[in-house]
């Protein structure tokens, strides 16, 4: 069974009642805020299950900076995960060019896979 929960991720955390702070419950999180969803990345990482999941990160990006943006998203999600105590491998599965938002500005969606990693002994790093 799949459950969809919609929360306004653009609200500052102090305005969201504590019973709505969704931690460790999601297999995937859609971060559909534009021009950037960066302000909600910490909340999204916290919402994923401890074993990880998928983040669909939206953003409006200059067409000449698409690769830089994707690398920034991946690196930032990894840093957030580590700061939250998760031992995840973070990888970009796909970057979709959704549409032109303005001249030389694209609306992109990066599919970011987060997976638990283990060392050679099978222990979580």
Automatic annotation (TrEMBL):
Its EC number is 2.5.1.114. It comes from the Eukaryota. InterPro entries: MeTrfase_TRM5/TYW2, SAM-dependent_MTases_sf. It catalyses: 4-demethylwyosine(37) in tRNA(Phe) + S-adenosyl-L-methionine = 4-demethyl-7-[(3S)-3-amino-3-carboxypropyl]wyosine(37) in tRNA(Phe) + S-methyl-5'-thioadenosine + H(+). Residues 1-116 form the SAM-dependent methyltransferase TRM5/TYW2-type domain. GO terms for cellular component: cytoplasm. It comes from Morella rubra. This is tRNA(Phe) (4-demethylwyosine(37)-C(7)) aminocarboxypropyltransferase. It is an enzyme of class 2 (transferase). PROSITE patterns: SAM_MT_TRM5_TYW2. GO terms for molecular function: tRNA 4-demethylwyosine alpha-amino-alpha-carboxypropyltransferase activity; tRNA methyltransferase activity. GO terms for biological process: tRNA methylation; wybutosine biosynthetic process.
């Amino acid at each position: 069974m799949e459950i969809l929960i919609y929360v306004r991720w653009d609200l500052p955390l102090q305005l969201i009642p504590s019973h709505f702070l969704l931690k460790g419950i999601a297999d995937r999180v859609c971060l559909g805020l534009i021009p950037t969803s960066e302000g909600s990345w910490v909340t999204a990482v916290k919402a994923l299950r401890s074993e990880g999941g998928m983040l669909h990160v939206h953003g409006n990006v200059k067409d000449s900076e698409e690769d830089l943006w994707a690398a920034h998203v991946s690196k930032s999600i990894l840093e957030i995960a580590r700061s939250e105590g998760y031992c995840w491998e973070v990888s970009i599965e796909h970057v979709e060019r959704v549409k032109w938002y303005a001249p030389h500005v694209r609306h992109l969606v990066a599919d970011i896979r987060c997976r638990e990693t283990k060392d050679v002994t099978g222990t979580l790093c």
